[in-house]
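User: Please run a holo structure prediction.
Assistant: Happy to. Please share the sequence and the ligand.
User: Here you go; the ligand is beta-D-fucopyranose.
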Amino acid sequence: MTAVDARPRTTAESRFPRGFRWGTATAAYQIEGAAAEDGRTPSIWDTFSRAPGRVRNGDTGDIAADHYHRMNEDVALLKELGVTDYRFSVAWPRVQPTGRGPAVQRGLDFYRRLVDALLAAGIRPVATLYHWDLPQELEDAGGWPQRDTAGRFAEYARIVGEALGDRVATWITLNEPWCAAFLGYASGVHAPGRTDPVAALRAAHHFNLAHGLAVGALRAALPRKSEISLTLNLHAVRPLADTAADLDAVRRIDALGNRIFLDPVFHGRLPEDLIDDTAPLTDWSFVRDGDLETASAPIDSLGINYYSPTVVAAVSPGAPDVPLPGMTGMTGVSDAPDTPSPWPGTEGRVRFVPVPGPRTAMDWPVDADGLYELLTRLRDELPRTPLMVTENGAAYDDYADPSGAVHDPERVAYLRAHLAAVHRAIAEGTRVRGYFLWSLLDNFEWAYGYSKRFGIVHVDFATQRRTVKDSARWYAAVIGRGGLA
Ligand code: FCB
């Protein structure tokens, strides 16, 4: 781990390797709308967003960016941008409404049309199977803390793989299982909104198992040359000071935030220190023989989502313990002081320290070096695994001015710095194969509803009018020349 004062500086500017994949990313619940159309049933996010006080302004994904009805217009925008790849997610409750049984053809047809439109535009589709929209019936049966959900997921993966495997070459099983497990089941700021730390640890394990089972199901369903991946929001964790105590705080957060997924998936084991740290909460007896072997089925690449770094310090005896979930660089509500910690077992031991410097509209610090740190760490730890940045971007308070332009210079600066960090990592021998900007469109930003705009295309949610922001033009120019100026 790197200490704060030894952070590398990101300066390199130039071309990216030939064949680099330039993309944007979205997720089904955040853009599709059409929540009750063509057989779709509620997911945990429909239920959660309807519960009073869960999502800012009572917003829901009922209409979102109406992408379900405007898919062709949105693919035309992607073509105009010149992206080579587009990452979207498939809504489980659209394809297999109750989470069990046969597929709904009308649901699958939407994704067939999307994929065909992308291919016709010369854009490679990258499909994520789970971006947080668990069918509500499976949550009612126990959700991710319940083992059977992993088996259900593998069955759904098979259905989608068989339906789209002839057209989609790159597959991502899960998006950010850390958020889904710990924000969903421990801090409760995401659906399904439970606050049970042991349930969150069980969910994390079942995500690893679900991933491994889905890899097996996809390998059986897909053509041999297909690429199978997993997207993690790994934490670039730094100590406040280079002391043994602060380094131990880093170790704890690294175990709970990173190695809890990396070790099972890439090494077929659980971190010993994680088991020790969480021993007062659980004996991990929900991990059965063979699970870790299943979780470690070989994959072809690893996706990293990165927004901001995390700085931690040890809690000194007697000092107030102030967990700040919003300061950890992930989606979470930072202005609710009573929110339970999403970090089971760290209370009274670890303190999250605000990072100084510029911030986005999410109040997340802007620090591209964290991305460089993560990528080079993975180069060293997983030298044979190609990497992709499957999400990176920033929210700012954008608006269309009277002339219809959206000027977002802060987003351009953010993107430029982060692409320079990716370039620097590549120049130093890291195998980064692509970059997917979050996000194509302004959208439903989970617990923040429509109050946060991450798009490079502005959406007026009253009229659904799309307006290309300056950052989209800038990104198109970067793609056109194959790198930063
Ligand atoms: C990530 C999510 C994505 C989006 C960004 C801002 O955690 O994967 O859906 O909300 O944060």
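Residues 27, 30, 175-176, 179, 233, 305, 330-331, 391, 438, 445-446, 454 surround beta-D-fucopyranose (CB under 6 Å).
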